[in-house]
């Protein structure tokens, strides 16, 4: 099946007073139509930078030094601002991590939601208003007409998150990028947001790039998973093999830090150490100082590249874990 979105060797850095922050380093991934692809990793690993790169919304101090981002047959990195404006909202939509900060604080919800519709269609303002209200109702917001007239600061974080989802989904995009859409929400609202995303995939055959640090969300939503560490994809696999036969020491350590319902007496093992300095990334594997499987080769050679160890299971490691999650 042809890929809807393909990222090849994407390298992004940010200029700062401390030096260049190497946010993404030769990142590659592929998403097919109707697929949920989860990107999981610690805070600061480069997940949000990946989302902003696809949308063409990187800040002025960012530099893309290598790579390619293909949406269908369109090279997003070489598209004009007008082409990107046409794609955003209509073909590709982004749900930002902090909904209350993403909304304009001095404008009511109605005009912000209507603007998305009017920018990409020829319908009247009256019809756009109706579409906006219908979408808010679909997102589970009672009394959409009242919500349309309110400012973001008058709404709860959960309501703002649903409004951001409504903005992203109102034009039924083919690709939804959701950056931590359930972060900071209570478990009931988390389940509702994830249910809405599942419906989008099922009803519209849309694809989702879901960014998270929650392995529970990954297990519930993903078809494929990319594990990212210090700006590098270290493991890429279907969700079931990843959980049952994780091979990179970082992925394995993440799973060991989770409680298990089938083994309530299991000791939770925290991952020791901290991520490397993104300004002074080492030439060798960035996980080396925290790795329990490190060999001499890991210390003397450059960082490993993604290699297929099983069918559609890729790992960037010289000495992968051989035991699985159930062992």
Question: Quick gist of this model?
Answer:
The protein contains twelve helices and twelve strands. The chain has helices at 47-55, 81-87, 99-102, 109-119, 125-138, 144-148, 157-169, 187-204, 215-221, 239-244, 249-256, 296-300, and strands at 3-16, 19-32, 36-40, 62-71, 74-75, 92-95, 175-179, 207-212, 224-229, 232-238, 307-310, 313-315. The mean pLDDT is 90.
- Number-wise, the strands total 12
**Helix-residue proportion:** 25-40%
Cα separation of the termini: 34 Å
What Rg is obtained from the alpha carbons, in whole angstroms? 21 Å
How much of the polypeptide forms β-strand, as a percent range?
15-25%
Number of helices: 12
Q: How much is the average pLDDT?
A: 90
Low-confidence regions: none
Oligomer: single chain
Major β-sheet annotation: 8 strands, mixed
What structural category characterises the helix and strand content?
alpha/beta
Shape: globular
**From N to C, what is the helix and strand string?**
EEEHEEHEHHHHHEHEHEEHHHEE
Order of strands across the widest beta sheet?
6-7-8-3-9-10-12-11
Q: What does this protein structure show overall?
A:
By secondary structure, the protein is α/β, with parallel strands linked by helices. The chain has a domain at 246-320 and 323-327. The protein is built from 12 helices and 12 strands. It has helices at 47-55, 81-87, 99-102, 109-119, 125-138, 144-148, 157-169, 187-204, 215-221, 239-244, 249-256, 296-300, and strands at residues 3-16, 19-32, 36-40, 62-71, 74-75, 92-95, 175-179, 207-212, 224-229, 232-238, 307-310, 313-315. The longest helix is centred in the middle third of the chain and has 18 residues, at 187-204. It is globular.
């Amino acid at each position: 099946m042809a890929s809807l979105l393909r990222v090849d060797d994407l390298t992004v850095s940010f200029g700062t007073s401390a030096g260049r922050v190497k946010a993404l380093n030769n990142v590659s991934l592929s998403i097919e139509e109707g697929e949920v692809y989860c990107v999981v990793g610690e805070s600061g690993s480069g997940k949000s930078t990946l989302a902003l790169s696809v949308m063409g919304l990187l800040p002025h101090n960012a530099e893309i030094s290598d790579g390619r981002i293909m949406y269908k047959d369109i090279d997003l990195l070489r598209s004009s601002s007008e082409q990107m404006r046409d794609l955003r909202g209509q073909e590709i939509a982004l749900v930002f991590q902090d909904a209350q900060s993403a909304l304009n604080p001095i404008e009511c919800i109605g005009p912000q939601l209507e603007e998305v519709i009017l920018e990409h269609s020829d319908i009247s303002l009256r019809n756009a208003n109706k579409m906006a209200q219908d979408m808010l109702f679909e997102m589970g917001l009672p009394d959409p007409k009242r919500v349309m007239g309110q400012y973001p600061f008058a709404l709860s974080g959960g309501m703002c998150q649903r409004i951001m989802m409504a903005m992203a989904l109102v034009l039924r995009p083919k690709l939804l990028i959701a950056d931590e859409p359930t972060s900071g929400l209570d478990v009931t609202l988390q389940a509702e947001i994830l249910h809405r995303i599942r419906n989008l995939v099922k009803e519209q055959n849309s694809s989702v790039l879901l960014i998270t640090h929650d392995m529970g969300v990954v297990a519930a939503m993903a078809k494929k998973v990319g594990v990212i560490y210090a700006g590098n994809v270290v493991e890429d696999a279907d969700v079931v093999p990843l959980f049952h036969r994780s091979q990179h020491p970082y992925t394995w350590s993440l799973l060991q830090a989770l409680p298990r319902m089938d083994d309530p007496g299991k000791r939770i093992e925290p991952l020791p150490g901290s991520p490397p300095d993104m300004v002074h990334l080492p030439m060798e594997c960035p996980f080396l100082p925290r790795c329990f499987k490190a060999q001499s080769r890991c210390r003397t050679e450059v960082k490993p590249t993604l290699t297929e160890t099983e069918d559609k299971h890729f790992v960037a490691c010289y000495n992968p874990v051989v035991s699985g999650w159930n062992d």
